[in-house]
Amino acid sequence: MLKLVIGNKNYSSWSMRPWLALRANSIPFEEVFVPLYTDNKADKDRILRFSRAGKVPALVDGDVTVWDSLSIIEYLAEKFPQTRLWPEDRARRAHARSISAEMHSGFMALRNECGMNLHRPIGAVALSDDARANVVRIQEIWADCARRYGKDGPFLFGVFGGADAMFAPVVHRFRTYAIEVSGEARQYYEAMQALPAFQQWTRDGLAETLRIERFETV
Asked: Which CATH number covers residue 134?
């Protein structure tokens, strides 16, 4: 059986992405949890046993280990083509990969100013110009996909797929930091929050007891 090594659901946005890709598509896997932010050498060594990068997530499939959330989603798409993690149409697939890569490597201002923290009381913070530009661009992506593919379903390319998994942590950030989402983008925002796997991740994260001051004082 596949093993997915993840960190704390409350804080580990990178872990959330492949976890959702697996759970939302009913792909069986064993969840291996390694606590983050503990300053415990045993925890750090345990991560290194799974991935020499020393970071989560990591997917273990027999003798194959894949690290990095987007690489894991690519691997799952190839191993389980019936899941349609990427659209079948070549043009849609290119679009899905492009926005996923943009999320993977971009939006640093928003990431830095609105850290992933499910325990944080909902409330707005003052955002920099760069972070506000990130918010505009993200909603532009959501609205554009809704206009192009909305007739096929409520997610970015109709059915839930790899691109949705990549954008899922941003949905949490928008909710946690009370960022207004409007128009066609809001339809997607609400569909993601209604996804059972998304709700399970949220419940599990809120049940965790670890609290980190540097996140909660944001």
From this structure: 1.20.1050.10
